[in-house]
Amino acid sequence: MIMNSLQDTIKLNNGVDMPRLGLGVFKAEDGEEVINAVKWALEHGYRSIDTAAAYKNEEGVGQALKDSGLSRDEIFVTSKLWNSDQGYEETLQAFETSLEKLGLDYLDLYLIHWPVEGKYKESWKAMEKLYHDGKIRAIGVSNFHPHHLDDLLKDGEVTPVINQVELHPKLAQQEVRDYCEKHDIVVEAWSPLMQGQILEEPVIQELAQKYNKTAAQIVIRWDLQIGIVTIPKSTKQHRIQENADVFDFELTDEEVVKITELNENHRVGPDPDNFDF
């Protein structure tokens, strides 16, 4: 699939178009830091911003969106439901809180942040209601293994459009990707650069030299070529711009395979089958 620009989109299973490359704001401090990051991203042409209630920076994101001068329908905004807010009524309330903090009338995408046992199905019912009520354009999940998705799909009316998971060359998530492809669920990568740890990998370094690109740009390009959505996080202006400068070259099929073969099923974040928060 040839990717030509930062505005390129992927069609979700409900017909909504989502940008393939966006800005993640995990650990970006509320206030000036996150406001600047989002502002720089939007100025550079990014049109997708990914936040979450747990990041505690929705207000700053909302401020930057407001200051941008862009019309609401030009920007794709994602937020996520935190674990302590799961349950039917709690989800409805948490969603309103997020919307208020962001200063928006609707969300483009709302995700269940983690599969909290005994609660995520109730949360999903509430999200289906918000979706049917037109308050969210698309709903999805984050950090769900195939067995969590099976469980959700058993009773859910709406198939998630997205499963956002930790994904990078050391954790290629082939099983999750195969499952999601079969069920028409788009896979989205969080921590696509493995918190910087992947950048020293010789294969990546070699390709960076070959294409006169940074190691990060090689990994982001790999993401796009394997058909996933990716949201590299940065609060530095030059990095935000650099991460998006990936549309003037293409990895060969062999190079894509080489990067995929770096997989060791190695996580830098928690395992969705074993988290306690």
UniProtKB/TrEMBL annotation:
<dbReference type="InterPro" id="IPR018170">
    <property type="entry name" value="Aldo/ket_reductase_CS"/>
</dbReference>
<dbReference type="Pfam" id="PF00248">
    <property type="entry name" value="Aldo_ket_red"/>
</dbReference>
<dbReference type="GO" id="GO:0016616">
    <property type="term" value="F:oxidoreductase activity, acting on the CH-OH group of donors, NAD or NADP as acceptor"/>
</dbReference>
<feature type="binding site">
    <location>
        <position position="113"/>
    </location>
    <ligand>
        <name>substrate</name>
    </ligand>
</feature>
<feature type="domain" description="NADP-dependent oxidoreductase">
    <location>
        <begin position="21"/>
        <end position="264"/>
    </location>
</feature>
<dbReference type="InterPro" id="IPR023210">
    <property type="entry name" value="NADP_OxRdtase_dom"/>
</dbReference>
<dbReference type="InterPro" id="IPR044500">
    <property type="entry name" value="AKR5G"/>
</dbReference>
<comment type="similarity">
    <text>Belongs to the aldo/keto reductase family.</text>
</comment>
<feature type="active site" description="Proton donor">
    <location>
        <position position="55"/>
    </location>
</feature>
<dbReference type="InterPro" id="IPR036812">
    <property type="entry name" value="NAD(P)_OxRdtase_dom_sf"/>
</dbReference>
<feature type="site" description="Lowers pKa of active site Tyr">
    <location>
        <position position="80"/>
    </location>
</feature>
<protein>
    <submittedName>
        <fullName>Glyoxal reductase</fullName>
    </submittedName>
</protein>
<keyword id="KW-0560">Oxidoreductase</keyword>
<dbReference type="InterPro" id="IPR020471">
    <property type="entry name" value="AKR"/>
</dbReference>
<keyword id="KW-0521">NADP</keyword>
